[in-house]
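Consider the tokenized backbone below.
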């Protein structure tokens, strides 16, 4: 492992691995530098310009794009920095839809946090305000909504789609004030190659990408995704006994902060009124509810009537490895057949 680099930030000596940006080194050591377009899961691109810092002997520079150097002396707050950050922030909000009260991201929005931290002159914003893009809200996807009037062009969604999902279905389109994030041909997202993983939705710092019908949970529980056998770490949010949200566990060994469409948007089956919660037994052509004891003894009786290749097992990806091991053992050793298969996708 290469040696750590020592630098001073706001008079505090900190250490960071070579190649680490000043921004990430400072944040890891509890020193806040305002930022918007940087995300720990993605490459840095230096778009928003609010992470400016002063480095001794140099002009102010964006800390997310500047790697730490031995002996560097960094200042994160000064009158000049405040002023420049304010102008850069103004440029980000000039044509941003300011209707925070009705926005799903209200109080969880990074742009709101920045405006509180840096401060904005409302009169100046009013005077310089540009017309909004007035893009129609794209609600073509059944699980999330795109509102490009709330987009600040940080590019986090573009990099997420490219670097994490490997899909690349969105990119910057048009030029100048008309610039926006769009799919090929500026069509609704449903007409693109989007696989609805929701990774971009999870990382959007503003209200441009939000889950449809988002409900704020009253409590959260860390668990494992109940779908396929990957075992992705997730945090499920609930109100009472009803699941209302899910998000990935950052750094989880199986999924490292990502979820697929099923884990992110597919948990409504848990509370669905059509979900079977009791076994059904066919009696005189009709399926009727039965107790577990009745169902299990019926299955045991039926098992006794078949042998060898008359019998087959379909195991499930929803079961644990141990459950599936026992099923194949039972199929081979007790039922004496190799007819066992597994539904790997659910
Ligand atoms: Fe550095 Fe946006 S966070 S330029």
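A designed sequence for it:
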């Amino acid at each position: 492992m290469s040696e750590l680099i020592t630098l001073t930030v706001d008079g505090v000596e900190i250490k960071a691995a070579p190649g680490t940006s000043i921004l990430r080194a400072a944040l890891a050591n509890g020193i806040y530098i305002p930022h918007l377009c940087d995300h720990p899961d993605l490459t840095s691109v230096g778009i928003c310009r609010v992470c400016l810092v002063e480095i001794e002997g140099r002009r102010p520079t964006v800390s997310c794009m500047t790697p730490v150097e031995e002996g560097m002396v960094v200042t994160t707050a000064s009158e000049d920095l405040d002023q420049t950050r304010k102008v850069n922030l103004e440029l980000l909000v000039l044509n941003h839809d300011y209707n925070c009260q009705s926005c799903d991201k209200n109080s969880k929005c990074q742009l709101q946090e920045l405006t509180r931290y840096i401060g904005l002159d409302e009169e100046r914003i009013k005077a310089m305000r540009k017309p909004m893009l007035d893009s129609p809200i794209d609600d073509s996807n059944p699980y999330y909504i795109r509102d490009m009037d709330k987009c600040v062009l940080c590019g986090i969604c573009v990099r997420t789609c490219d670097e994490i999902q490997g899909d690349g279905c969105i990119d910057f389109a048009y030029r100048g004030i008309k610039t926006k994030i769009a799919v090929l041909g500026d069509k609704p997202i449903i007409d693109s190659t989007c696989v609805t993983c929701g990774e971009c939705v999870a990382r959007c710092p503003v209200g441009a990408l939000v889950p449809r019908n988002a409900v704020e949970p009253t409590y959260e529980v860390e668990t494992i995704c109940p779908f396929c056998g990957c075992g992705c770490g997730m945090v499920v949010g609930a109100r009472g006994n009803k699941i209302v949200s899910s998000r990935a566990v950052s750094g989880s060994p199986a999924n490292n902060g990502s979820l697929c469409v099923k884990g992110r948007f597919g948990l409504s089956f848990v509370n669905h009124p059509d979900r079977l919660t009791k076994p059904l037994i066919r009696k005189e052509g009709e399926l009727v509810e039965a107790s577990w004891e009745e169902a299990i003894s019926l299955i045991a009786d039926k098992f006794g009537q078949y042998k060898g290749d008359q019998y087959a097992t379909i195991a499930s990806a929803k079961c644990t490895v141990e459950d599936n091991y026992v099923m194949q053992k039972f199929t081979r050793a007790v039922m004496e057949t190799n007819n066992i298969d597994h539904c790997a996708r659910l």
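The chain has three domains: 5-128, 215-275, 280-342.
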